[in-house]
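Aim 2, interim progress. The first record below pairs a target sequence with its C-alpha cells.
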Amino acid sequence: MERPQTVEAVRAVTAAFLTHDNWVRPNQARSCRNRPPRVAYPTLPTLPQLPEGVGPDRWLDAVDGQAFARSVQPNGNVLVDLRPYSIRQALAGRQVVLVVRAAERVFDVWHGRERLKAVPIKGLYGQRLPFEQYAERMQEEARSDYRRWLYAHWHRGQPPRWIAAGSG
C-alpha cells in the first residue's frame, strides 16, 4: 500500500493507479467483456461543454398546470416545499389546491370551485446565474436538506445510519 508524503508523490501514485485501472486491470462490466475500460473503449465520446449560465427557475416550466393539494394549518397557512403561503385562517383544516402558473410565477389557490387568490411562488431566483454560482447554491441546498433529514431522524430516537453503523 502506498503512503505518499508529498503532493507530487500523491499525483504520481494516482497517475499510476489510473493507468493500471484503465489500461491493464480487466473490468467485469458486461460492456467491457472482461477487458480494461480503455481497451474496450479506446475513444470516449466528448462531453458537452458546461454552460456559462443557468436558468435556475426553468424547472417551473415542467410543472406548469400541475395541482398540489394541501391542508390549511390553524394559522391559515399551507406549506409547499417547507415554505409557508398565507391562504385564509377561516379555512383551517380544509383542503385547498394550488395550481402552478409558470409564466406568471404564481400558484392559483382554489377551494372547491372558487379561486381564492394567486400567491407568488417563493424561492425563485428570477435571473440567470453563472454556472459556478448555481453549483454553489445547489450544494448549499443539498447540505440544508441533509441537515433537515438528520435533525428529523436524530430527534425521533433514530440515529443517522453513519452513526449507527460506526457504533457497533
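The second target in this work package is listed in the same format:
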Amino acid sequence: MPDYAFTFQSITAAQGSRNILDRRGIENWILRSPKSLLGLGCGYLIKVRENSGPRAASILRAWNAPFVRIYALYPDGRIEAAAL
C-alpha cells in the first residue's frame, strides 16, 4: 500500500497545512518534491502514512488548504496521481 503526498507550491503553504494535520494527530513530514513533480509547479509536499491519507485529505479540504494535487507514493518508487 502506498503512502500519500499532498503537493504545495510554497513552503509556507506546506507548513500551515502541516500544523493543521499536527493538531489533528496525523503524523506527517514536509519534503522537497521529487524532480518528476517540480515541472508541475509543486516544490514541497506533505507525506502521510497510507492509513492516514483519506482522513488527511478530508481535513485539508475542510480547512481549504492550498494543496495542488494528491499522489500515491509506492515503496518501489512509483508516483501516481491519487483520488482521495
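The chain has a mean pLDDT of 92. This observation will shape the mutagenesis plan for the next reporting period.
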